[in-house]
Amino acid sequence: MRYSLNGASIPPEAKTVSVLYFTNNTALAPPTLSQHFTEAMKDICATQTKLGLVNKGGDLSFEGYVSDYRVSPLAIQTNDQAALSRLSVSVQVKYINKFDEKKNFETTFTRFADFNSTLSLASQEPTLIPLINKQLTEDIFNKAFSNW
Asked: For residue 7, what pLDDT band results from cuts at 50, 70 and 90?
């Protein structure tokens, strides 16, 4: 029997979860992105489950790296200038469930946020990165614990 909290299906024998540090394997991402993403992943596990958070070797574990960080122009105007730009972040995630190997996965998750092209990326990152991290961590959490 599995227990469910907020729609999450977690094996009853699982008592701990570990989130290893997600390294930054991109050239363009700000140096704090890895730390912010790792903390966001720990936060969702701590707040959405009753599992104890451990540094490594959890019954359920997440590890990986930031694999892509890019800005793309959107909505080109008549003067060949972009009205909007899109910041996209991809994270490669390996999830291990010690109790059910069929639940293990290694997947890349990508999310994005759009911003006004007249504004600098640096001025928008403090708003965009937390938004993207929230979307990414929800996607990862749902794949690991909600069977989608």
From this structure: low
Query: Above 80 in pLDDT, residue 75?
Result: no
Alpha helix (H) residue ranges in 58-148 = 121-145
**CA–CA distances in Å: residue 51 to residues 37, 46, 78:** 19, 7, 54
The pTM for the full model equals 0.89
Tokens 């599992």, residue? 51
The strand pairing partners of 100, in sequence order, are: none
Q: Does domain 3-145 bear CATH number 3.30.420.40?
A: no
d(CA 91, CA 62) in angstroms, rounded, equals 12
- Greater model confidence, 62 or 10: 62
For residues 117 and 8, what is the distance between their CA atoms, to the nearest angstrom? 38
